[in-house]
């Protein structure tokens, strides 16, 4: 019989621990090795992806998917067809995939309240009737779990690349925004300088008009086709 520690060492990082499993209360109840799940692996940096951090994803990966690995498209959820491509990329034969599907279908067809030992007998008998050795089922299932873990790591690397590229684009855009803001500020200060210098020039010319007097200026303004009322329209 394989104990919990040994099982954990064999498939570390593969199994998904369901909510409620491995609780303190479960330790008080006897269970077989098949019922027990290994402890989840320590949290790695790749589980906390950020645009500015890259983790050594290859440190935990034992399998690299080969060939046509399905793209990890943002906003999509992998389906059965995608996972079939993943298994193919992991060099898992179609026959092996079908064996696992057969075992899953058999398990799902049994009532949930059926005792586990009874379910095991039924499934093993059915597989035997189909001529499928149990060891081949176990091997194929383990291969698929290994492939799925590799796909998770593949997706993590792709996601990190996307985040890194996005971070670089954001940095460039932020630099452009900073330059635009500098230009805006410079243009506003230039306009203020223009107003100040123009008003000083107006005061210089205004001395001439003040010298000839308001009445003379008003008369010339009214008669000139070139001059308009600064408040709008012809004087």
Description:
This protein has 235 residues and is mainly alpha-helical. It has a domain of 43 residues. The chain is built from 6 helices and no strands. Helix 3 packs across helix 5. The longest helix is centred in the last third of the chain and has 79 residues. It starts with a helix and ends in a 12-residue tail after the last helix.
- Mean pLDDT score, rounded? 78
Task: Please give the share of residues in helix.
Answer: 55-70%
How much of the residues is beta strand, in percent? Answer: under 5%
Number of discrete helical segments: 6
Number of strands: 0
What characteristic shape results from the CA principal axes? rod-shaped
Poorly predicted runs of 5 or more residues: 1-10, 23-61
Largest sheet data: none
Report the C-alpha radius of gyration, rounded.
38 Å
Distance between the termini: 108 Å
**What class, by secondary structure content?**
mainly alpha
In N-to-C order, the SSE pattern is HHHHHH
Describe, in short, the structure shown:
The chain has 235 residues and is an all-alpha fold.
Characteristic key phrases:
single chain; 235 residues; mainly alpha; rod-shaped
Secondary-structure blueprint of this entry?
Layout: H1 4-10, H2 80-89, H3 94-109, H4 116-129, H5 134-212, H6 214-223
